[in-house]
Amino acid sequence: MTALAALIRRDIRIALRVGGGALIGVLFFLTVVVLMPFAVGPDLAQLARLGPAILWLGALLASLLTLDRLFMADHEDGSLDLITMSRTPLELACAAKALAHWLAAGLPLIVATPVLGLLLNLDMVATGAVALTLLVGTPALTFTGMIGAALAVTLHRGGLLMAVLVLPLSIPVLIFGVAASQAAITGPLSFGAPFSILCALSLVSLVIGPFAAAASLKHGLD
Amino acid sequence: MNGLKPGQMQLSGRGVICVRGSREVFSGLDFEAVSGEAVAVTGRNGSGKTSLLRLIAGLLIPAGGTIVLDGGDGDMTLPEQCHYLGHRDALKPALSVAENLSFWADFLGGERFNVAESLATVGLDHAADLPAAFLSAGQRRRLSLARLLTVRRPVWLLDEPTNALDVSGQDMFGRLMRDHLARGGMIIVATHAPLGIESRELRIGGMV
Q: pTM for the full model?
């Protein structure tokens, strides 16, 4: 546990320092959400209707923005070699890194959601529903995105490849995240069904993500 | 125990084959090293010196042959008993010198020695709170060497370890290697330069 705690502490510390990426994710989220009303127009009812989808898209893109470097930095500076050689199973190390990424880059998005909800004319209930679905759904974005981040290291390509690999995997999370939010706000579907599926997607990604990422990293050793 | 005395170790490779991409780097390589011994891996550029170290570290998978450590900690794999010091220093520029070293001490676990003492030994005690981003190449290498002191491992795999070190740094590193060998450690080092310690040469690859 000490090793994993040390890895989580280190990654959070790096993310929160200047140029670490955590703040960049929140700023990008803020920018996307602020720009939307300019594109959609001043119709408050329409903004409220589109609000959950805008917030979810913003969170998805902000997650992608910072996931790119999840393993690449450790690969480039040689840390990944030492992590691979250590007694800590690589799967657990991957899970720890993803958890640290979510705490540093995912959680701030959820904290920012109530403020951004105001910009989209969402009431308290709607904002709470979106924040709750983001709380449950963003771990799925991180843990599936981790697979793409590992593949980017293995294939020696980052950036766009990462987006191409991860975005299709994120579609179910996006669908059920927005559906659960809409159900809580306008109905007629019950909130429980899509929210349960969202929880299930997160749990599945928590299990599959670390194993897939570790397998990719091991395969890509050079 | 293969004729080894208690506490003694023997690292041996038999018929090791290394293939990178579609190129066979070397094949049929046999080598041995025992506790208290340094082996200097030499050869021309591209002969596979780094690849051999990475094979021992478990970072590459041999296309054939075996690499075995006899007499080490039976509960640990060979890579878990190795320190690998490659071309890259495994340092985070955003973290301070002491934070970088403390992280590896916590993460790698095992027998741990005082971070401040290790930094003093490599001459970086004055820079403990400085972000690693501000270190020179030689200081970065010294910080990597401090990792070898903070977390004790019996097998050191060193790839051009004296790169970027000044003369005093090379002398200091020579002393560290001699101390490690005196404690029963083992060193496999890929190098083009004289090591400053007694070592056995393992030449790999043919002549150009």
A: 0.89
